[in-house]
């Protein structure tokens, strides 16, 4: 029940309104059911019916109903009783419809709220935490666990509603015959208790599903990202074997869940039928109750037992899905604890230069940068080269504030980066990664990322600055061509130019290219470098590369190796002078 209390704390108003509608629906149905007793009395006793028999010879509930009609000056005729019964059932149906509609809306809201909470928490985490998380772990949480969590809410609300309805039915039954009702309730709870083991087995199967889905989808995501080399080496069968093993484990958990559900459904019915048969015999033979009373009694007790039976099934379904909610919520809480701290408030201007002064950084015990000092003047084109693992990307991550130096200072003009408003600083950065990841959407959306602040004129400007406008206009639908579809297939260089346009569309002050040309052929790289040279002076460019073309295009170049940096002399004959030292 911990899950139910959690949902009620998170959505108190909506849950109370839903349960109120279901409560009044149960009351309306129960009131309508009470009309059956005098109705059957009239039908069995003849036209004199309910009022003909002497007082004290009718069940207490029937006498109370008749007195109620006398007080308002009405005669309990078949027509009137049937009319009240039908009206109550219609009111009950309308209230149930209203409640079910609200429940449906709430189920969608629960899933949406959990997904948004996960996205907000994940995007706000520290970069060092984020990069070490398996992608599949969060895609599974976003898709599968959020849906199962919403289902748990649905089953929980239904459970509470059924318990409320059972209480209403039991109240009416007690007014007809308290002995029979108490005996029925005791037997019903004994049956439910006897079947509790099936609920526990289903809960265990649900937990197993949550664990296996989490590990399976994490592994599947990682495998799909590296499927090309696996297929090229004919080793995809190794990944396939692991996935098959985990999928079979998931299948076994699902089978245990199905068995528990079906066993519960199969055993509930005969056990309750046996008890009802025994109760009917006792009422007619031992207690010699009137037939009309027995018929109403049996009807109400069947409703009570059936409702309790449904409630146990809903509880079983809830505990199966419950583990998905706790798994998802633990990820949200974990991500929130890893929230990036942005304590700076100074507005960065970038009127002079970005400088690294005696900056050191390491990952654990491995030192990557050792007292590195560099400068990137405003409007300059700077390049950083070095072997893999030398710390080139680490420098970029430090400048963008994704990482913090263990010692030393990063300056934006005269302001330490740690004191700057990090969001404002990043909004002035255009970043071009090595991976040319484009959305399967139009060129327009790929450039603007769907930001309504930018229109087609902004996208065209950015595409022209990136040298992409000429080939974009040659596409079937121009800027509205869907990338990846017929007519929208692009070469590596064309894809890279679109990512450069994406970095330029918001008019950044600093553009960073992180190995952005390393996967291109020399001719394409040279063409992109020519485009970058045309941007020199309009904004500051910092490029990381292994290629010589970037070095030839840059105003200054640094070589990074073994945690230290040195400024390379300018060997371009047209300039003929070494760059100034720091």
Describe this protein's structure.
It is a single chain. The protein is of the alpha/beta class and 582 residues long. The protein has 2 domains: 2-205 and 261-337, ABC transporter transmembrane region fold (Up-down Bundle); 353-568, Rossmann fold, CATH 3.40.50.300. The chain has 21 helices and 10 strands. Strands 6-7-8-3-9-10 form a 6-stranded mixed β-sheet, sandwiched between helices. Strands 2-1-4-5 form a 4-stranded antiparallel β-sheet, covered by helices on one side. A hairpin with a 2-residue loop joins β4 (407-412) and β5 (415-416). It starts with a helix and ends in a 14-residue tail after the last strand.
Can you summarize this structure?
The protein is α/β, with parallel strands linked by helices and 582 residues long.
Topology:
Blueprint (H helix, E strand, L loop, with lengths): L1 H9 L1 H23 L1 H10 L3 H4 L7 H12 L6 H46 L3 H4 L4 H42 L1 H17 L1 H30 L1 H6 L3 H51 L4 H47 L15 E11 L2 E12 L3 E5 L6 H8 L7 E6 L2 E2 L5 H5 L2 E4 L10 H6 L7 H10 L3 H5 L18 H13 L5 E5 L7 H14 L4 E5 L3 H6 L2 E6 L2 E5 L14
Parallel strand pairs: 3-8, 3-9, 6-7, 7-8
Antiparallel strand pairs: 1-2, 1-4, 4-5, 9-10
Helix pairs in contact: 1-2, 2-6, 2-8, 3-6, 3-13, 6-8, 6-13, 8-9, 8-10, 8-13, 9-12, 9-13, 10-12, 10-13, 12-13, 17-19
Features:
single chain; 582 residues; alpha/beta; ABC transporter transmembrane region fold; Rossmann fold; 2 domains; 6-stranded mixed β-sheet; 4-stranded antiparallel β-sheet; 21 helices; elongated
């Amino acid at each position: 029940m911990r899950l139910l209390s959690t949902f009620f704390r998170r959505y108190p108003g909506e849950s109370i309104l839903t349960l109120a509608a279901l409560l009044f629906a149960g009351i309306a149905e129960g009131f309508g059911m009470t009309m059956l007793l005098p109705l059957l009395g009239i039908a069995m006793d003849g036209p004199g019916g309910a009022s003909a028999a002497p007082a004290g010879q009718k069940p207490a509930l029937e006498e109370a109903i008749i007195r109620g009609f006398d007080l308002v000056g009405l005669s309990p005729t078949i027509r009137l009783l049937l009319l009240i019964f039908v009206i109550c059932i219609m009111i009950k149906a309308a209230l149930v419809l209203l409640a079910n509609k609200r429940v449906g809306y709430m189920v969608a809201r629960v899933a949406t709220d959990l997904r948004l909470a996960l996205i907000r928490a994940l995007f706000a985490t520290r970069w060092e935490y984020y990069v070490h998380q398996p992608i599949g772990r969060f895609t599974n949480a976003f898709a599968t666990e959020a849906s199962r969590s919403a289902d748990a809410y649905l089953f929980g609300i239904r459970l509470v509603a059924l318990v409320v309805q059972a209480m209403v039915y039991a109240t009416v039954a007690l007014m007809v015959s308290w002995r029979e009702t108490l005996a029925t309730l005791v037997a019903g709870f004994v049956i439910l208790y006897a079947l509790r083991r099936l609920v526990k087995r289903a809960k265990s199967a649900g937990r197993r599903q949550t664990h296996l889905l989490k590990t399976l989808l994490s592994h599947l995501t990682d495998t799909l990202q590296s499927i090309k080399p696996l297929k090229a080496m004919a080793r995809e069968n190794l990944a396939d074997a692991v996935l098959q093993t985990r999928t079979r484990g998931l299948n076994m958990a699902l089978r245990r869940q199905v068995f528990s559900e079906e066993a519960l459904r199969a055993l509930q019915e005969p056990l309750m039928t046996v008890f009802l048969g025994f109760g009917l015999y006792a009422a007619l033979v031992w207690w010699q109750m009137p037939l009309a009373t027995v018929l109403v009694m049996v009807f109400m007790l069947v409703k009570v037992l059936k409702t309790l039976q449904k409630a146990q099934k809903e509880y079983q379904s809830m505990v199966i899905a419950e583990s998905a909610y706790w798994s998802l919520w633990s990820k949200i809480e974990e991500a929130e604890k890893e929230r990036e701290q942005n304590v700076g408030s100074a507005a960065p201007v970038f009127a002079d230069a970005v400088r690294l002064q005696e900056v050191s950084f390491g990952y654990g015990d491995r030192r990557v940068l050792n007292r590195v000092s560099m400068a990137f003047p405003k409007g300059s084109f700077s390049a950083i080269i070095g072997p893999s693992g030398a710390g080139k990307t680490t420098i970029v991550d430090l400048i963008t504030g994704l990482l913090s130096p263990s010692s030393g200072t990063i300056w934006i003009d005269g302001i330490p980066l740690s004191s700057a408003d990090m969001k404002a600083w990043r909004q002035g950065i255009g970043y071009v990664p090595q991976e040319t990841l484009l959305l399967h959407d139009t060129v327009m959306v790929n450039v603007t990322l769907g930001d309504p602040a930018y229109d087609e004129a902004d996208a065209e400007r950015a595409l022209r600055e990136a040298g992409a406008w000429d080939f974009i206009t040659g596409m079937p639908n121009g800027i509205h061509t869907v990338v990846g579809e017929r007519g929208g297939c692009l070469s590596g260089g064309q894809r890279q130019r679109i990512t450069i346009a994406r970095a330029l569309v918001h008019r950044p002050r600093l553009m960073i290219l992180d190995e952005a040309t390393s996967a291109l052929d020399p001719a394409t790289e040279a063409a992109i470098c020519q485009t970058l040279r045309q941007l020199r002076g309009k904004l500051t460019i910092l490029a990381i590369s292994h290629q010589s073309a970037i070095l030839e295009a840059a105003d200054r170049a640094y070589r990074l190796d073994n945690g230290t940096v040195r400024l390379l002399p300018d060997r371009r004959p047209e300039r003929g002078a070494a760059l100034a030292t720091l």
